[in-house]
Each structure stands twice: as structure tokens, then as C-alpha cells.
Amino acid sequence: MKDGKTVTLAIESSCDETAAAVMSEGRGVLSNIISSQIDIHKQYGGVVPEIASRHHLTNINTVVDRAMEEADVSMDEVDMIGVTYGPGLVGALLIGLATAKAYALAAGKPLIGVHHIHGHICANYIEHRELEPPFMALVISGGHTNIVEVTGYNECRVLGATRDDAAGEAYDKVARVLGLGYPGGPLIDRIAKEGDPHAVEFKRVFLEKDSFDFSFSGIKTGVLNYINSEKQAGREINVADVAAGFQAAVLDVIVAKTLRAAIDMGKDRIVLAGGVAANSRLREMMAEGCRKNGIDLYYPSPVLCTDNAAMIGCAAYYRYMAGERDDLTLDAIPNLEL
Asked: Binding of Fe cation: at which residues (predicted)?
């Protein structure tokens, strides 16, 4: 039962997780169901968009039903339908969006579109009830690497973004050439702990002096060139050392730029969000940097770092409370800007 509180049914399908959640007052999780396709796409070394869409279509209604049952609420008790409408894979987005529209139309509920990155940021509100804007956010995942200045629940400004590969994408590609498998992020994080980050060092790419942007294609190429040269020379490759060196090169830049953004913009709180925010070494390095600079650090538990609908429900709630609504013409935007 809703007990007079605002209830949101949220749907997320931007990539390869089919997810639905029921939220109370934005931050309270009544249910959070995730159907992952990792094992399906693992054999291909990455997400295949058409296959992802097919599985979303197969799973979406079951996932929503499970979310409603676990939350023990009826559609009459739901106040709004929140849904991711971008960025992401267009076919995958359309499955979730069409489902959300159908529920909104059939039940006469408001439709609230949510930006996927905004959702990742909002994941922190769920577990950190004391957290409020303003703060600096680092959103880091397979598709995004952004430094975002958050000034309100619905107001933010992108200060820096990747100019080529996202950090998570670079992790996946390096893991592939090292023969580690997919997804690369947790695999590299795990094996890097056994390696020496100074044994094989790769160039740190900071770009222009005042830029908060990122570039990871050079580091990725550096790893590939190193592996090829070692193979040609007949030398054995220490995978753990290469993984540790690659991770250090990526995270040194990410941590330094995020801290500088917070300091330059006068923010005393940093928030981590996105799948790569679950990386243990990133958390350690950011915690140390924040401690030295008197900055508070927040990040979600791993289940809320990966794609989920609870974060979408939280973001939808704050749009709803601000009086924002969408109609049934809302379309999927695969390259939606924040």
C-alpha cells in the first residue's frame, strides 16, 4: 500500500538491462527488478543492439509485473510512469518507451521522460538520504564519461566529456585484447590488483590545460601497441601488470580532473555514478583525493551503479514535483544531450 506517498513506476531499457522499479517519494525503493543480458552478449564480446532489443521485447512485461508484485501496489496507486528516453540504443529505448506509454495511456497516468545520465546521478539520492544539490558528479560507464556540475535536482551542466571512447568502452576493448573477456570493467579491476601499475606505464592524456574533457583512445592504442611489440619480440606478457598500468593511466586522469572541477567550481561534495563507479580502485583513489582536499565523497552500491530503474524512478519524481510532464509524442533520442 502507498500510505499516501507519491509512487512511481519506472522503466529502464537503454542498453542491455531490462529493468522496472516502484519508488516511494523518489528515494524509497519498493522494488527494483533487473533482467540482465550480460551472459547473452558475452559470446559476442559486447552488446549487439538487435539482440538486445529482441530480449527487451521478450522480458519487459514480465519485469514490470514482477516489480509491481514485489512492491505490492496496484496501478491505481501509481502516480506517474517514469521512463528512460535517451541516450542509448534506439531499438532498446523504444521498447521501454512504448511500454511506459501504454501503461500511462491505459491507466491515465502522467508520463515522465528521464535522461539516462540524470538517472545515474540520482542513484546517489536513494542510498544517501542526506545528499542534496549542489555537488560535482562524475558519471562514468560504458557509454559515458562526464563531469557534471549539479546545481539542483533538475538542473545540471556538463563541464567535461569524452572526445572519443568512454572509459568503460576502453576497459572493454583492452580486456578483449588481453583475452580477459566481457564485460571488461570488473575483470580488469580484479586482475589489476595482482599487478604492478609501474611495471608497464602508459601515457596520461590530459588534453588542454584548462579542459575537463577526456580522451581514452590513445591509452587504448598504447596498450595494443605494447602487446603487439612484446609478442613480436617473443616476450611473455604479464597481463596483470598491463591491466594495472592501463587502469592507473585512465584513473589518474579521471580523478585529477574531477577533483580540479570540484575545487574550481567551489563544490565540497563529489558524487560517483555509472557502471564504472563500482570500480574499487577508482573509489580508493577518489576517496584519497577527496580526503586531502576536504571534499565529501558519495557513491551508490554496485547494484545501483549498473543500469537500473530505481534511479530512473528517483529522477522522474523530481521532474514530477517540479511540475514537468511529457506527452505521448515523447520519442527515443539515442544521442540525447544532458
From this structure: 116, 120, 307
Inter-residue contact 260 to 207 (CB < 8 Å): no
The domain 134-302 is classified under which CATH number: 3.40.190.10, 3.40.50.300, 1.10.630.10, 3.30.420.40? 3.30.420.40
Give the mean model confidence (pLDDT) for residues 11-26.
96
Query: Taking the model in full, what pTM does it have?
Result: 0.93
Does 189 appear as a known binding residue? yes
Q: Which fold has domain 7-122+305-321?
A: Nucleotidyltransferase; domain 5 (3.30.420)
The predicted-structure confidence for 228-243, as pLDDT tens digits, reads as follows: 999 999 999 999 999 9
Specify the 3-state DSSP secondary structure of 226: helix
Residue 120 among known ligand-binding residues? yes
**From CA 40, how far away is CA 77, in angstroms rounded?**
35
55 is in an annotated binding site: no
Burial 91-102 (b: 16+ CB within 10 A, else e): bbbbbbbebbbe
- Whether residue 29 is annotated as binding a ligand: the answer is no
